[in-house]
Design goal:
The chain has 291 residues and is an alpha/beta fold. 36% of the residues lie in helices and 19% in strands. It is built from ten helices and nine strands. The strands form two sheets. The protein has a seven-stranded mixed β-sheet, with helices on both faces.
């Protein structure tokens, strides 16, 4: 009896079933992304090539990717990129993998800043990581000048590459610093951030795919509740915002109420609030400085 050939369709079905048995999230999608990477093609092309027999060389490459993902390594690191805000960003283990929740931070920032202004907008992205937030803001705010800060030189290298790939590097200045410590004598129309906000105790419940592979420095916030990094950023941001300027950060549903109360306790903020993500969780904390 002739052995059944390993076509694209058969590989996808087998791998999706295998991932499902391993309780891997979105097993079919993971199989498609990994196979398209091994084939060096767009994922959508797989649907027109189901009956194509895959070479042994490609199958070996694909098998290695499948094994690594089954052991917990994130797909984004395996293929070296992740889509965010309908744009492709290079990622590696020096940066957090951009997530859909963070797209809300970009949208909320864009909603509050004018697409056109008499003077160039000045925006600061604190903890830029892969540069996803800074690049998206530069792309959709063509008159904006972005300052992108990160404490990790390796992360800044990734962010610079992404800015160059999306042709916005001439409007983004990258700085190595801890929060806003190196921003002196400057004021911004908006300061945005996806800071570390997971507490040490919460890390025990974080999936291994995050805990073992993504940079701990970008995950765990200071303080017992993980929120001290955000509170420090709030304190540093206030004098560095123009009158009427905006402060927006991603946070966790557990921290949002206490952080909002912290903002409300400072009279120089005109107003503040919390925006929920698509899952209904409190996700983006925002505040506007007094005019």
């Amino acid at each position: 009896m002739t052995e059944q050939a390993w076509t694209i369709g058969r590989l996808l079905s087998w791998t999706a079933d295998f991932f499902a048995q391993k309780n891997i999230e979105s097993p079919r999608l993971a199989a498609e992304v990994l196979l398209s990477s091994a084939l060096h093609c767009q994922r959508i092309e797989l649907y027109t090539r189901f009956d194509e027999v895959v070479s042994e060389v490609v199958r070996n490459d694909f098998r290695g990717l499948v094994k690594r993902h089954a052991s917990g390594e994130p797909v984004a690191y395996l293929v070296g990129q992740r889509e965010f805000y309908s744009m492709s960003f290079a990622v590696n283990q020096h940066v957090l993998i951009p997530r859909p929740e963070t797209e809300h931070l970009v949208s909320e920032t864009l909603d509050r800043l004018p697409a056109k202004s008499a003077e160039p907008l000045k925006v600061c992205d604190v903890g830029t990581g892969s540069g996803a937030i800074a690049v998206c803001l530069a792309k959709y705010l063509p008159q904006a000048k972005i300052t992108a800060i990160d404490i990790s030189p390796n992360a800044l290298e990734v962010a610079r590459s992404n800015a160059e790939n999306h042709r916005v590097s001439e409007r983004i200045e990258f700085r190595e610093a801890d929060l806003l410590s190196q921003v002196q004598g400057e004021v911004f129309d908006a300061i945005v951030s996806n800071p570390p906000y997971i507490s040490e105790s919460e890390m025990a419940a974080v999936p291994d795919s995050v805990k073992k592979f993504e940079p701990r420095q970008a995950l765990v916030g200071a303080g017992a509740d993980g929120g001290q990094t955000t509170r420090d950023l709030i304190d540093q941001a206030l004098p560095r915002l123009k009158p009427g300027g905006w402060f927006l950060v991603e946070t966790s549903p557990m921290l949002a109420p206490s952080l909002k109360s912290y903002l409300e306790g400072q009279p120089k903020w005109k107003r503040c609030g919390v925006v929920k993500d698509s899952a209904g969780h409190s996700r983006v904390l925002w505040a506007q400085k007094q005019s």
